[in-house]
Design goal:
With 270 residues, the protein is mainly α. The protein has helices at 2-12, 16-38, 46-53, 56-78, 80-87, 91-124, 136-163, 166-185, 189-192, 215-239; strands at residues 202-203, 206-207, 254-255, 264-265.
């Protein structure tokens, strides 16, 4: 398993989209967080000041959706999935390794950015007693943000595995976690309640542009969606052919070395 994890780590950082998504995610979270902290003069409690500084995670998680989808679909798009599944025939084991590597990467990155935003809140927002990075309220808010970002990434990876399409996976993923909860929240009251069972984006303990739910309910709902989608991805991955979707096999049945020679059969399946 260690060699498989090392292989997935190497594959993840050998493609450009991982570096680009990481750079955009860091830029969006840091810039929005520091601007939000600088724009808030005072806050009655440290956890509220930190949640304000975590605002950038609201849009930053959309970048994680792209990262999660492309982590899978890029292999099917380039055809390298054929070599991957030839080297690792146990597909569930491969998906577990890919999920662990991506989830750990996002968790560590989100934790570092969350503490950086908390530091910005302590420096730029006036809070009675100050903001302690090791205080329980602050660590709880940052921990919830790490969990939300990680679960959204796992959900996106599962969607990409099921659809095997970069455009389709990104569209479905963003619709599922952002656009649909937002539109449903704007609907009449009875319809808006459906948004509570959707995996909406979260900033700290609060939802982001969606129907308000407690952090316990929101985290449980997102975890259930991520787990359900991941199980579906395992079933689809085990049963479906590895041949990349949308890539037609080039068929060259005959070849002529010269105009007078007899044709030579190249591909008996054509």
């Amino acid at each position: 398993m260690t060699a498989l994890l090392r292989s997935e780590w190497t594959k993840l950082w050998s493609v450009r989209f991982a570096a680009w998504c990481t750079a955009v995610f860091v830029l969006v979270v840091c810039a929005s967080g520091w601007l939000a902290a600088a724009g808030t003069q005072t806050s009655p409690r440290p956890e509220l000041a930190v949640e304000t500084a975590l605002t950038g995670f609201g849009f930053g998680q959309l970048v994680l959706v792209v990262l999660g989808v492309l982590a899978v679909t890029s292999e099917f798009g380039t055809g390298s999935a054929l070599a991957t599944f030839t080297a690792v025939p146990r597909r569930t084991r491969l998906l577990v390794a890919k999920t662990l590597v991506l989830a750990a990467t996002v968790a560590v990155l989100s934790g570092a950015l969350g503490l950086l935003c908390a530091f910005a809140a302590g420096r730029l927002t006036e809070v009675p007693g100050g903001v302690s990075l090791l205080g329980r309220p602050v660590l709880q808010v940052v921990g919830l943000q790490i969990a939300a970002a990680t679960l959204i990434t796992v959900l996106a990876l599962a969607v990409g595995t099921v659809l095997r399409s970069s455009a389709g996976g990104v569209g479905v993923g963003m619709g599922l976690v952002f656009f649909v909860p937002l539109l449903v929240a704007l609907a009449p009251e009875r319809v808006a309640e459906l948004a509570r069972v959707m995996p909406a984006l979260r900033v700290g303990r609060d939802t982001f542009l969606a129907e308000a739910t407690s952090w316990q309910v929101g985290t449980a709902v997102t975890a259930a969606w991520a787990a359900g989608a991941w199980v579906l991805a395992v079933v689809v991955l085990e049963r479906r052919d590895v041949q990349p979707s949308g890539r037609r096999r080039t068929c060259v049945p005959w070849s002529w070395s010269s105009s007078r020679s007899a044709p030579r059969r190249l591909d008996p399946l054509c």
